[in-house]
Queue: 2 jobs
Job 1
Amino acid sequence: MGDCIFCKIIEGKMNAEKVYEDERIVAVRDIAPVSPLHLLIMPKKHVVNLLDLQPEDGSLVGHIFRVAAHLAREAGFADSGFRIVNNNNAGAGQSVFHLHFHLLAGRQMHWPPG
Ligand code: AMP
């Protein structure tokens, strides 16, 4: 998508610190972290949010979650805990309309989330 900042990051046209990449997904550090570990894990394919997933995307979200667990473990937060957040549409806080999952760790999390 031409004006999508995450597509530009994925294509290398915009700077971001990539910490993981495979054929289907990318993980980058959030530019405005809200916890010591704050990664964004996203598909390379432009998908707006969960509402835009297609039948052929079947295993994509499961793959993202497996990689999230791998990255949390690799960063040393498997035992202390980590949180995955996914905002769908503006009312839930989505500001970038390319599907992504926040991986947050390194501080005490609270419930309910804001
Ligand atoms: P959301 O509000 O759930 O759509 O999350 C979007 C996230 O993208 C926010 O946490 C932003 O800080 C982050 N973000 C926006 N632009 C960039 C960028 N260029 N590089 C890395 N993270 C970004």
Job 2
Amino acid sequence: MMDMWFDIIEGSKTLLELDDARIKIIGKNGELSKEFANLGKLPNAEKKAFATKLNSQKAEITTALNNKKILLEDEKLKQDLLDDSIDVTLFSKYKQAGSLHPIMETMDYIIEYFASLNFDVKYGPLAEDDFHNFEALNLSKHHPARDMQDTFYFKDSHLLRTHTSPVQIRTMLKESFPIKMISPGAVFRRDLDLTHTPMFHQVEALVVDKKDVVSFANLKDILTDFLKYTFGDIDVRFRSSFFPFTEPSAEVDISCIFCEAKGCRVCSHTGWLEVLGSGVVDDSVFKAVGYTDCSGYAFGLGVERFAMLLYKIPDLRLMYEGDLRLLRQFR
Ligand code: DAH
């Protein structure tokens, strides 16, 4: 009997078959279990020896069942692993990684530069209202920048922001000075020609502190450092200009990186390239946000312009055509 049972156990090919064998042999009505029922029929003198024999047989069978179970479980695990296996050495269909657009690349560079100087990075809504985009920035009701030609208007004096300067206003209305922030993002103007697109990107900056702590000298310093770090061995010049929200105001030029200031088509034979607008924050702006006894400077730059200069991209339109031959150069 025992040999036959061992054969059945040994011959089980699956855990299910093994369980059937267990039930058949030592289950409640199993063959070995039935033997125990015969115990009562034996004379007392033989009972003990018979019971001992049955118990040791049951122990042997149980051990055999357990050993076989471990073996079959092990085999099943191996088979499952084989069935589910993933070949991590296979090449992916998507092995060509994408890349950031040169505009985003440039924006990230600018953000990183100023973040490393402890400027906070702030974002504002693309759809603005008249107050934040114009009024609070000292752009009076009849200022030409409000002209229908330049601004995309919605109903109720809402509009697509024409610059990132409204984030200055939003920040000052929410927080008290000292403030040291930049704000990158898209801006919109009704403009389309060789050098203008209806959507482009700016990075705004604003620094405000107690009266006389921040001056035009600080502005000159930080921008000169930034431009020389970015473009290398160039000259920087601050040219007197006008913005309603700064007084005094300056446009900032760098010596032409294409012709080394000798004069070429890109710099219109002036030897200079205009790269940003800047100035000392006008008191009327502080008044609009309820700030007193403070001083500050601000500047705003066009990201496309920077990207074109940094990567020597000759035509603004290339930025928006999605031509892979351009984009692949930025991998
Ligand atoms: N907002 C101006 C523009 O879109 C750029 C600018 C000029 C921003 C001077 C400033 C600034 O913060 O001080 O043309």
